[in-house]
From TrEMBL:
Residues 78-185 form the Phosphatidic acid phosphatase type 2/haloperoxidase domain. SMART domains: acidPPc. It comes from Lactobacillus corticis. Keywords: Membrane, Transmembrane, Transmembrane helix. The chain crosses the membrane at residues 44-71, 78-95, 115-133, 140-158, 170-191. The keyword Signal does not apply. This is Membrane-associated phospholipid phosphatase. It comes from the Bacteria. Pfam families: PAP2.
Length: 192
């Protein structure tokens, strides 16, 4: 499904963003200004619903249900691959948040606590999207794939619109998810 360049490219983007967020005042100023240009309003009940539906804790529940289905149907490798992919990705995201300690935009909702980089919502929804596309994309076709990608894009827009994250936070989360997903696919190929 993925070509050989996805793993190193996603790693390079992620590492460049980590370095820039941690060490470049100019980059952070640019990120802040870009966020300000992209997001004019701080509202949107619809965006709050999208953020709730794709909350990382809820994505874990959906992923456990999906994995349970595969395990129940004697597809243990697929079930454990689903759990492992999300679990490792989320764990790395949590460690990164606590290590980088980037503050959220000033105007964020008090509902969004914790650090900003990488976005947990975008991280978990990207992993879930990639898993769903891998498992069901060929079976259900382009309409399914388009719907999944549309929902994923709405999650990204919701995190920016609700001023919970800077643009680099969502790009970093997507890069981390793509990196972890690509790596887990490589491991699955070796094990299988």
């Amino acid at each position: 499904m993925y070509s050989q360049w996805v793993l190193p490219l996603s790693a390079a983007v992620l590492l460049a963003l980590i370095y820039a967020v941690k060490h470049s005042r100019l980059f952070n100023l640019f990120d802040h200004e870009l966020h300000h240009l992209l997001v004019r309003r701080h509202d949107g009940f619809g965006w709050q619903i999208i953020a709730f539906i794709c909350d990382p804790k809820l994505v874990v529940v959906w992923t456990v249900l999906l994995a349970s289905y595969y395990i129940k149907n004697d597809q243990f490798m697929t079930g454990f691959w689903i759990l492992g992919t999300l679990g490792i990705t989320d764990a790395i995201g949590i460690v990164m948040k606590k290590s980088i300690r980037r503050k959220r935009p000033n105007e964020h909702l008090t509902l969004d606590a914790g650090y900003s980089f990488p976005s947990g919502h975008v991280l978990s929804s990207t992993i879930l999207m990639l898993i769903l596309l891998q498992l069901f994309g060929a079976k259900f076709g382009w309409v399914f794939g388009g719907a999944i990608i549309a929902i994923w894009l709405m999650v990204i827009i919701s995190r920016l619109s609700l001023k919970a994250h800077y643009p680099s936070d969502v790009i970093g989360a997507a890069s981390l998810a793509i990196f972890c997903f690509s790596l887990s696919n490589q491991v699955l190929l070796v094990i299988h």
